[in-house]
Specification:
- The protein is mostly helical.
- It has a domain of 205 residues.
- Helices cover 75% and strands 2% of the residues.
- The chain has a two-stranded antiparallel ribbon.
- The two termini are 26 Å apart.
């Protein structure tokens, strides 16, 4: 069944090519995009089952055996990321189609949207499956080029300005990553990660530390960790709601995935664990303080996005099975929750005409369905029991308690404070946008009754509801899911399953 491994990359790429050729046929574009992502989700689900039952699935691209050729590897970590990310992108695509239909542009949409969206998906899946550092770089570049286009759709002044910042920061990250690749190849003669796992152990300590620092710097910019994430709150909120949602849910997590993969496979000695702990603490605290200070829902959610990246980095810094398992679980949870909240923010903007808290009010009475769609993931983000956000944070904090040490205890305390401040920030949104009396410019319940206001499109509500249900399902299946993440963490720490899957006879 290894032939399935390339399909999560190939299917979206073929879909992108077909939708580009059918630029003047929007109905066909939508049908192809939906079919491609549905097929990708099905294949990803099968791969997850195979990795759990049979171990890592490996394919040599073009029949070129490693290390000469590029390999794609689906292990438990990669397969889980594929399933969650593809489910999210499919729901966001349906949401964007519903938004286009409601805005009256379903017959004359931007013809580049569907090809670019599918190219973005291919870049994400390629990054998750890559067993080669250069191919990982290619995956990043594909998704980044696609994201440049999606971020500036409509060519408004704010989007162009935000897109310019995003491009400059992303190019800087790419230059650092590419420079690191050149140094890695010069030092080891290979970019195959399974082969590098052995060869890095033979390098001088100072050279290994330099390469580790460069890779972490490149991935840290992409993951928006402190102090490298200042670009995010100004870039994401300006994009259309579906684009913002998929960016918030996925792009930073690809950076964290790259950190997990390289830190466990290439740098297992934990030499900079203390540095990662400090960065995770600062990312949590500075991010959530920024969120508390915001008066716009999208910007507030952008800062909470940065803050909660700190939890994932905490699990990586612990470098224990419990820590990594909690980090992987939290990534799956956060992809779903953050995407859902940004979709809900898009519905709030559509219903209230803005996401500025000082101009909203009364949504709880005016739009009760929207209230539910925001309330459940908001509680989940804040870590209220029994939701998956609580379970993920509990797993990470428990892993920290088990390790002891003053710095670890400081991060545990920071995680608790961050969770409380997240609850405060979300509660403030609920109070101002949903609970208090309607703002004078807000539509009233009477307006809703007489039909003078615009109802929220069902094709936008349905995928948001589906993601809310998916987030609740993560809570229901938390036990089996933690079993998968624990097995994935054990495999990451041992490194043997990954290396032997690529080189059954031993790495050359």
């Amino acid at each position: 069944m290894t032939s399935l491994v390339p399909l999560p990359v190939v299917i979206p790429l073929l879909g992108a090519a077909l939708t580009l050729m059918l630029a003047r046929r929007p109905v066909a574009q939508r049908a192809i995009s939906l079919t491609a992502l549905t097929a990708t989700l099905a294949v990803s689900s099968v791969l997850l089952v195979l990795t759990v039952t049979d171990g890592p699935q490996v394919v040599a691209v073009g029949g070129w055996a490693p290390p000469l050729g590029i390999v794609l590897i689906a292990d438990k970590l990669a397969a889980l990321m594929l399933v969650v990310s593809t489910a999210v992108t499919l729901c966001v695509l349906v949401y964007s189609i519903g938004q286009g239909a409601a805005d009256g542009d379903e017959e004359t949409p931007l013809s580049i949207y569907h090809p670019t969206y599918l190219a973005l998906t291919a870049g994400v899946t390629n990054a998750f499956l890559s067993g080669d550092l250069f191919n990982l770089y290619v995956g990043f570049e594909v998704l980044l080029v696609a994201s440049y286009v999606l971020l500036t759709l409509g060519s408004t002044e704010n989007r162009i300005r935000a897109g310019t910042t995003y491009v400059v920061v992303s190019l800087l990250s790419s230059v650092i990553f590419l420079s690191a690749l050149g140094l890695v190849y010069a030092a080891t003669g290979t970019l195959n990660m399974a082969q590098l796992a052995g060869r890095f152990d033979e390098l001088p300590d100072n050279l290994r530390l330099l390469l580790q620092g460069m890779l972490l710097l490149a991935f840290g910019i992409k993951a928006a960790v402190f102090p490298l994430g200042a670009w995010l709150p100004d870039s994401y909120p300006t994009a259309p709601a579906p684009v913002t949602a998929v960016f918030a849910g996925l792009l930073t997590k690809v950076g964290i995935y790259a950190v997990i993969r390289t830190e466990t496979l290439l740098f297992p000695d934990g030499r900079i664990a203390d540095v990662l702990l400090v960065i995770s603490l600062l990312t949590m605290v500075v991010g959530i303080l920024g969120a508390v200070a915001q008066s716009d829902i999208k910007r507030l959610l952008s800062f909470t996005l940065i803050s909660h990246i700190g939890y994932m980095l905490f699990g990586v810094a612990l470098a224990t099975e419990a820590g990594l398992s909690g980090a992987i679980f939290y990534i799956a949870h956060h992809i779903t929750i953050q995407t859902t909240l940004f979709l809900a923010a898009g519905l709030i903007e559509r219903r209230g005409g803005t996401t500025a808290l000082d101009r909203l009010g009364g949504l709880g009475k005016i739009a009760p369905v929207l209230s539910i769609l925001f309330f459940i993931p908001a509680l989940n983000l804040a870590g209220i029991p029994p939701f998956s956000g609580f379970l993920g944070k509990l797993g990470l904090l428990q892993a920290g308690v088990d390790e002891s040490g003053p710095l670890v205890w400081a991060v545990v305390a920071g995680g608790v404070v961050t969770s409380l401040l997240t609850l405060y920030a979300i509660g403030r949104v609920w109070n101002l946008a949903f609970w208090r009396r309607p703002h004078p410019q807000m539509p009233t319940a009477e307006d809703e009754a007489d039909g003078s206001t615009v109802l929220l499109p069902r094709l936008m509500i349905a995928p948001t509801f589906a993601l809310v249900a998916f987030s609740v399902a993560l809570t229901v299946v938390a036990g089996p899911l933690f079993g998968i993440t624990s097995d994935a963490a054990a495999d990451l720490l041992s490194r043997t399953p990954y290396i032997e899957a690529v080189f059954p006879d031993g790495a050359p």
